[in-house]
Design a protein that fits this description.
The protein is an alpha/beta fold. The protein contains ten helices and five strands.
Length: 224
């Protein structure tokens, strides 16, 4: 289901979505009609802009209401707004991806494919048995494979731009996933996210800098 106030964007979205192998069940310039069509057609995916004409349902409200009526619905935001606050609002509403309208068609196509590939949440497998491995807690947060991948690379020190290049997605998409990770872990930045993930057994605990150094070498240094 496609919803955008501008018909030219509906046509463009249809081309990209169909290229990704997904059939378009309906398209409309009205948020209210979009909600009605979601209830009637029960699509698997909703792609919507955030801003709608005056008197219409805004994109965030549309996502919330549509998912209340159709809980299995996946939602992607394609918007001219690329500020972080809009990304955060989309995450809170339940969107699985956020793509700016300045992005390449390939980025949207990847987001569409990813919405289905990561349609279920998976809990990370417990780390290999080790004296340094954290023990997963019963209430371990559930992250998608993509979120875990991004969190691992972020913990290694890659910037958002570097993450985007490595994973072939836009920097905005990286910000979206990180916002989702922060929300699930109850943190507000990368450092806290990495630490929380280690505590919950989602990421391995890094070994000390001198781990693996022969005991003799430590004694030698101490005697200098």
């Amino acid at each position: 289901m496609l919803v955008d106030a501008h018909r030219v964007w509906l046509d463009a979205l249809r081309i990209v979505v169909e290229k990704a192998g997904v059939e378009v069940a309906g398209a409309t310039t009205s948020g209210r009609q979009g909600l009605e069509l979601v209830c009637e057609l029960e699509p698997d995916l909703l792609i919507t802009e955030l801003t709608m004409p005056e008197g219409e349902i805004e994109g965030i409200t549309l996502i919330r209401e549509a998912r209340l009526r159709h809980p299995s619905l996946k939602a992607i935001v394609v918007s001219m707004h690329e500020e972080q606050r809009y990304v955060d609002s989309a995450v809170e509403a339940g969107a699985v991806a956020y793509v700016g309208k300045t992005a390449r068609p390939d980025d949207l196509e990847a987001a569409v494919r990813g919405a289905f590939a990561n349609s279920h949440h998976v809990q990370a497998a417990p780390p290999a048995r080790s004296s340094r491995a954290a023990t997963p807690e019963p209430d371990t947060p559930r992250l998608t494979r993509r979120e875990l991948e991004i969190l691992q690379l972020a913990a290694e020190g890659l910037s958002n731009a570097e993450l985007g290049k490595r994973l072939c997605v836009t920097e905005q998409t990286i910000k979206f996933h990180l916002s989702n990770v922060y929300r699930k872990l109850g943190v507000s930045n990368r450092t806290e996210a990495s630490r929380s993930a280690q505590v919950h057994g989602l990421l391995p605990v890094p070994a000390p800098a001198n781990a693996g150094r022969p005991a003799g070498s430590r004694r030698l240094e101490a005697g200098r």
